[in-house]
Amino acid sequence: xxxxxxxxxxxxxxxLRVHAPEATLLASVGxxxxxxxxxxxPFETPSGELIPPDAWLxxxxxxxxxxxxxLLGLLWSEETxxxxxxxxxxxxLLSAASAEGANREADMLITQLPAPTAWLNAxxxxxQVSRTFLELFxxxxxDVVGQPLQTVFPGREDLVQSLTLAASxxxxxxxxxxxxxxxxxxxxxGSTGGVPTASGSTASTATGVWLRGxxxxxxxxxxxxxLWTVQDVSGERQEAARMTALxxxxxxxxxxxxxxxxxxxxxxxxxxxxxxxxxxxxxTPLWTWPCFADLPSELVRxxxxxxxxxxxxxxxxxxxxxxxxxLALRRxxxxxxxxxxxxxxxxxxxxxxxxxxxxxxALSDAATILxxxxxxxxxxxxxxxxxxxxxxxxxxxxSLSRVLGELGVRLHTPEGDPISIPDLRTLNLPLIRxxxxxxxxxxxxxxxVRATRVEEGSKPGTLLVLRDLTALRRAQAKMKHDARxxxxxxxxxxxxxxxxxxxxxxxxxxxxxxLDADGFxxxxxxxxxxxxxxxxxxxxxxxxxxxxxxxxLAARLADDTFAAHLPDLSAEGAVQAIQATLQLPLRSxxxxxxxxxxxxxAHLPADMTADAALADAEIAMQHAKRQGRAQTSAxxxxxxxxxxxxxxxxxxxxxxxxxxxxxxLYQPAVRLEDGQPFSAxxxxxxxxxxxxxxxxxxxxxxxxxxxxxxQVGDWVVQEALxxxxxxxxxxxxxxxxxxxxxxxxxxxxxxAGLEHLMxxxxxxxxxxxEVSAGSLLDHSQDTLGLLEQLRTHGxxxxxxxxxxxxxxxxxxxxxxxxxxxxxxxxxxxLPNDERSLTLVQATIDLAHRLxxxxxxxxxxxxxxxxxxxxxxxxxxxxxxxxxxLSADDLGVWLAER
Length: 897
Hints:
Number of strands: 38
Largest sheet: 8 strands, mixed, barrel
Distance between the termini: 94 Å
Helix content: 25-40%
Structural class: alpha+beta
Number of helices: 31
Strand order of the largest sheet: 30-31-33-34-35-36-37-38
Radius of gyration: 41 Å
Shape: elongated
């Protein structure tokens, strides 16, 4: 359907007037963004961008109209809540009006299921149930979902058999049963007659209803199962009582049956055929009625079976009183009910029964249309007229095939292919067919149409019975869609992307890009879940637009992890396109939010499987994340081995502490004024069983991504304290021996400042703490509090690696520092580089003015020691003094000094 701009304006205003009269709509239409209200003319927004005003984010309720990740509009109401129906119908209209509206029918079908429905897997375990199903049987969701059928409905072997039949691929109808179920207040239900109701005693507020079930096989991609729908047919049973009154006193043999042959109502003429000593009983199968000879009458049973399957069944049945009864059976207009007519003369009998059938149709709640031999509508029930969206009076006495087309009713196959309205007079009957009926108002309904012959003398007519399957088909479509799509953004999920890649044109080309937002967890904590969901929707819309531009597909793989298949771009071109798309900040409330991403890209050659390409891109993304923020990595075979090695190393790290694989080496520092050692820096090493000795740079980045870093830090602190105590005890002249450990401020924050070690630190005194200069850029109050707490327990706080990378001179006065260590690059070019001499001299002078102790690190030669002593440096450590020593070697070395 093509909508002109003016028609679209009118439609949007009309829908707002009906569904949300107080709301304001921002809608993307072509290259315009329109502001629409029910009481004013639409106008184009000055910005031309689909961005909510700040006032919308500060108050009222804002709803996002999205489809497949594309943002179609924003609906806002200041005073009242935005109805869900308004969101659905406006999304449908905007989708239909867009260039991507070809699949709008599928969008329309994905709505909340109103019918009581359960979805079970092939093993008859409940996977999902509708809210109405739970209400009907008085269950709560956890009582059902994930539970086997026999656990939820114990002792129901007939139910198990019927659903097992559906699981094997054959639909089955469940027999009508009387159930005591809770009323609308939700009281607990009981059970009568073994019906499938919730267990427990019958509540005083429970009511009795008649239930009819249907089980159909469901196949969705790699999953298969059963859809079990239940409907309340109490009204149908009430019709049976009404029919009993209608048939009372009628001499023509007539009966109303269930499709299993049970007699619900019978005329006086049929009851009188039975002997007075053996009266017929309502509620028993017709073939057991004592009026027939050779009980049970197999002929009557066969007639019922044929009629129940949709055919017209006629036969001469022997009577117990002698002679035969011409008996005709056919479906009534009410689902699951049959009409049996006994004829004294075929023409007159049928004519009489036709009049009764007309009364049945008029009284029943079924959607039925009765046609004469020329295809003219002689009877149209109100339910049938509502289903096709027409006034029943417009159909009467007119050719149904012609008038439906003239009044705007269109037919489609269930898949959506248009078909012409057939000449009903030429159909081969009986007929059962499913159609998608589009009414004149544009609403589409899935219907099952049953057509059977109605004998009326020499000119047979046709009876059409319409059954609305829309709820069931919506449930199936929603399940299939939800299994492949992300609920928040509408983008395909991982299975949906894999399905797309597997079905892509051969040979497959292009690139697959995976991206993960840096620090999104912290952003979520800062802005809140709702604001971050809006950011994700915007991000999804951008990626969806980009993928659509290049003929590919975007998907959401996890919370803040997305992927895109870009078929016509190289790996390098795909990364550039993604970066350009994400360059502009996203909008959250009054602020712009700039996000950075870890990008991983993999080339998709023609001979690569879809799973392999996606896995390669994810491996590249994980590698990029390990490199820091805003990093990009292209997949190459070495990355796979690197990721596998990192995983194995992280797994082995969990057992390293318990397995006593960690050890400390000590790098002593000496005072330059007298050459005496006074402290040592503890250096962590991992004695890996197969890889040998590993430096911290090899494994600490892995530990920092989990709580392992806290365990490692605890071990280092405790081991350093033991080493310090051992030196003080074994070398009496070093009773004041000090040990320093390297701890990042992030590590201190995550471990709550080593809170669980505070009793130990208070008793033995804390080690000196070395923190990097770059980490002091964080001037938070929490950071200051942590460092002050450690200093009260005897720790000296030292700035490590000062003079290289990012640092702040104001941090030297802001934090409670005792000293700093010069970065090795400052001493490496001594003594011959004049610029280095000047820089080191200035740094030492600045530190001394701030009462900070200065230690030179990485001193390799005696010449460097001499120059540093002349420059006034307080202490030094490095290979010119001694290489790192084990705890035992350190004790020997100190004893010799």
